Amino acid sequence: MSLWIVEPVRTSRAFPSVGRAFPFVWNVGLVPLCVAIGIVVYFTAALWLQRSWQDPRPKGQVVVPLLRPFEPLSKAAFRATLPPEYRQLASLADRPNIERDTRSPIVVYEGTRPLGPSHSSFTEVSAGGGSFAHWTDTGLVFSASDSSDPNSNGRRYWAVIAGPH
């Protein structure tokens, strides 16, 4: 009778075939290196985005987005309705019955650029070119800078009250 002695194969890995195919999976020293590279990539991207990303809102003490649809009043003049939470801005409007009343502090922005001239007459706003007015009886009336339809030109509009300087 012959004796068969079988010795077990000793390995340090639970799955030696995976270790041969993916040696980096089992290399514990590589994990901290990957974490460090990930942190460096994250902070580099965050710094780059902070310097390259621009807030689409203009700066001011009160910044109110003007929401579509804008009501057409003439070929180039449109009326914007302020959101309900900003209805108190109507008390700041120019009074049309007082000649040269320019008390409204609101400036209309197209993107990040201010439109103007402000406190324009309806005839001036209807002519286009970015003029606007804020009246107690009519509300906020404006025209796009290129006299296009602000409902379809793809630009965002804002009513802004500048902060104290």
Structural class: alpha+beta
**How much of the residues is beta strand, in percent?**
15-25%
Order of helices and strands: HHEEEEEHEEE
What's the arrangement of strands in the largest beta sheet? 1-8-4-5
The number of helical elements comes to 3
Q: What is the mean predicted local confidence, pLDDT?
A: 83
Q: Biggest sheet, open or closed, and with what strands and sense?
A: 4 strands, antiparallel
What shape does the CA trace take?
elongated
**E-strand count:** 8
Which residues sit in consecutive blocks of at least 5 with pLDDT less than 50? none
Textual characterization of the structure:
By secondary structure, the protein is an alpha+beta fold. The protein has two domains: 16-52; 62-161. It is 21% helix and 18% strand. The chain is built from three helices and eight strands. It has helices spanning 16-21, 30-52, 122-127; strands at residues 62-66, 71-72, 78-80, 106-110, 113-114, 132-135, 139-142, 157-161. A four-stranded antiparallel β-sheet has the order 1-8-4-5, with no helix packed on it. A four-stranded antiparallel β-sheet has the order 2-3-7-6. The longest helix is centred in the N-terminal third of the chain and has 23 residues, at 30-52. The chain starts with 15 loop residues before the first helix and ends with a strand.
List keywords for this structure.
alpha+beta
In a few lines, what is going on in this structure?
The chain is of the alpha+beta class. It has helices spanning 16-21, 30-52, 122-127; strands at 62-66, 71-72, 78-80, 106-110, 113-114, 132-135, 139-142, 157-161.
